[in-house]
Design a protein that fits this description.
The complex is a heterodimer of chains A (152) and B (178). Chain A is an all-alpha fold and 152 residues long. Chain A is 62% helix and 0% strand. Chain A has six helices and no strands. In chain A, helix 2 packs across helix 3. Chain A is elongated, with a radius of gyration of 33 Å. Chain A starts with a helix and ends with a helix. By secondary structure, chain B is an alpha/beta fold. The longest helix of chain B is centred in the N-terminal third of the chain and has 26 residues. Classes of the chains: A mainly alpha (152), B alpha/beta (178). At the A-B interface, helix 3 and helix 4 of A face helix 4 of B.
């Protein structure tokens, strides 16, 4: 285990840096239409299956897109707009889970898997089963007798 | 020496299989179209608008009576199917509860011709040309029906065409004698 620890440390640090970069990624583009499109892509279309509001052409998706544009024009922040729809449709409408713990779950599962793999690889190989005990004189005599009996 | 290890291996199967099986079993039994409304258990938001008859309407006028708010559109085929049920509710329970229609993503002209063709029960139908009221209710699409009790709390939201069973059950829950 000691030999692999630096490698594991580096891997952990790398994952941490990636996660931090992902979480701190700037999410506010300047263009309002672009911002509206981005918000629409984050919301689930209520009257279709597995599509975002941005991708769908249904009546409700259309209405939500217009509503997002109006709210942005009225000076509301993306967070306020998200909350506006969560209050009316529930957390269901967010395509990305809002709970950061959810994002750590796969990382945790990966680390567990790596740890299990390392433990498995480093475990002392099970000793090869000791061979058959050497044949005794009695055994040799019996084999010889049987062979002779076969030869007739 | 190898025996305790084998025990773990046997334990691993139920430890993995039971939660996975439970997840699949409950997950597959769930209808993805059933979206719980955060409005259920909450007071109905104050909605104001203009009816198809060009009269002002506000949900404040519902105070003290149970209400059934039905979201519909002339382009919505299942709305045609459930319309007779609503007409029946209006006829039988019109004095106990208030029916309100919300015309969704439609023109007032098309909505009026729908009523002319399939029957006008006389209850107020809110025109919602910008879909503002519908989004306020978290509407997913017509037909959709909200059951509001006499104290103004949303008790149930039904997605899809109403059935006689759903109506009877929900009206009873609102205290309407069915």
């Amino acid at each position: 285990m000691r030999r692999l620890t630096p490698l594991a440390t580096v891997a952990l640090l790398g994952l941490g840096v990636l996660l931090a970069l992902q979480l701190s990624r700037p999410s506010a583009p300047i263009e309002p239409t672009e911002q509206a499109a981005q918000l629409a892509a984050e919301l689930r279309c209520p009257d279709c299956q597995s599509l975002s509001v941005a991708e769908s052409r249904t009546a409700t998706a259309d209405a939500i897109r217009r509503d997002i544009a109006e709210q942005l024009a009225a000076g509301r922040t993306p967070d306020q707009i998200r909350q506006h729809f969560v209050a009316r449709y529930g957390k269901w409408i967010l395509l990305q889970p809002a709970d950061p713990l959810i994002w750590l779950l796969p990382v945790g599962a990966l680390l567990l898997g790596v740890a299990a793999f390392i433990l498995w690889v480093r475990r002392a190989p099970t000793p090869v089963e000791a061979g058959e005990p050497p044949a005794s004189d009695e055994d040799r005599r019996r084999v010889r007798d049987e062979l002779e009996a076969l030869d007739g | 020496m190898a025996r305790p290890h084998a025990v773990w291996r046997w334990l691993l199967i139920p430890v993995l299989a039971v939660p996975l099986g439970w997840l699949l079993f409950t997950g597959l039994g769930r209808d993805p179209r059933l979206i719980p409304s955060p409005l259920v258990g909450q007071p109905l938001p104050a909605l104001t608008g203009t009816t198809l008859g060009n009269e002002p309407f506000t949900t404040a006028s519902l105070a003290g009576r149970p209400a059934v708010i039905n979201v519909w559109a002339s382009w919505c085929a299942p709305c045609v199917d459930e319309h007779p049920l609503l007409l029946d509710v209006a006829r039988r329970h019109g004095d106990e509860l208030q029916l309100v229609g919300l015309v969704y993503h439609d023109t007032p002209e098309a909505a009026r011709s729908f009523l002319a063709e399939y029957g006008d029960g006389g209850w107020p139908d809110l025109a919602d040309p910008s879909d503002r009221i519908a989004l306020e209710l978290g509407v997913t699409g017509p037909p959709e029906t909200f059951f509001v009790d006499a104290s103004g709390i949303v008790r149930y939201r039904h997605i899809g065409p109403l059935t006689a069973e759903v109506l009877a059950e929900q009206l009873a829950a609102l205290g309407v004698d069915t």
